[in-house]
Write a structure and sequence with these properties.
Structural class: mainly alpha
Radius of gyration: 17 Å
Order of helices and strands: HHH
Strand content: under 5%
Length: about 90
Amino acid sequence: MSERKSHHSDKVKSNLISRLNRIEGQVRGVKGLIERDAYCDDVLNQIASIQSALNGVGKLLLEHHLKSCVLERIQEGDNEVISELLTTVNKLIK
């Protein structure tokens, strides 16, 4: 069985990595807030911001997955990709 890989352009990959780097910085910031005993509401607002940013990365990745990997597999007659996609979407929206 061959390993599946994504079909992201360098531009998309760079965008995803930039977003994830910002999120990583936000998470470190939240850790710092907790270490400094910051007001809970401030920490929770930062966590909400991180969750929103992660959702944005997920949406972008899902869009490109649909337009490339999923479309390609359907065109090849592999309808199993639909079940795989539904499972993944259900995990994303929990």
